[in-house]
Amino acid sequence: MPLRLHMNLVDQPSQVALLMEGRPYVVGRGSSADIHLNHPAVSRSHAQFQFHDGSWQVQDLNSSSGCYVNHERVAQLRLTRDPVQFRMGQVNCVAEWVPYRDAVVSDSQANWQLKQVQNSTPQLMQPMDLDTFANFATEILQNLFPRERAALLLLDEQGELTHSCGNPHWVNTDDFAGSRTAIRRVVETHKPVVLANIQDDRHLRIANSVVQQGINSLICVPVALNQTLYGVLYADSTEVSRPFTEIDLRVVTSYARQLGIVFGLREIDQELANS
């Protein structure tokens, strides 16, 4: 059975590799590694993954920073069928067995998400009031990430929430249950915030919303056009085995760009209507 390996680097989307039985895989920083993991605390040939005697096993290749389970250094690790958390150097990892069918579906899902984003523009361009538009935009985002909380959050000129649409039990302006700290970072930098493992961020991991909601990973991307910030696309997940990946960032960023253009066109239409 294939193995899906999530390697969670700080302030970056999760790097994901799909390993198949029948051959060993070396993970490391060196150019000859089968799976390249660019982190200064990772050795050139750090660890080897191989399916052997009916299970996936990890072998430390005498790396300088080691492999760890529950803060204890291990030379070898057997991966059970349930998701297993461990660390290579300073990189937190999650490994899980996946059926062959699910491995194929994962690739198909990514292609489907990108196609959904491309097909959404004509619908978003239809005349509608702001509430209807925001609800529709949120619905598209929730379809892209059905297992996570997801919403379009609109901001005022000071970067504060003014209107939000989505599941009413967690998304509303007065009692937003997501991470306001992540949103503030996006407002200040106009750059995406992606955390594959929120425990790697010493500020966010102690935030009340993160602790109370059990948020494990999140993605927050600005919706902007020509330096004008209209809002953010926000999604988070409580599943350890489902961190946000580079593909997720690509999909959400593409969608955010489209929404920024639509917001700009809506402003032009409003100006023409008022002139």
TrEMBL record:
Organism: Aliidiomarina halalkaliphila
The protein's name in its UniProt record: FHA domain-containing protein
Superkingdom: Bacteria
Residue ranges of the TM segments: none
Domain called FHA: residue spans: 25-74
One Pfam family recorded for the sequence: GAF
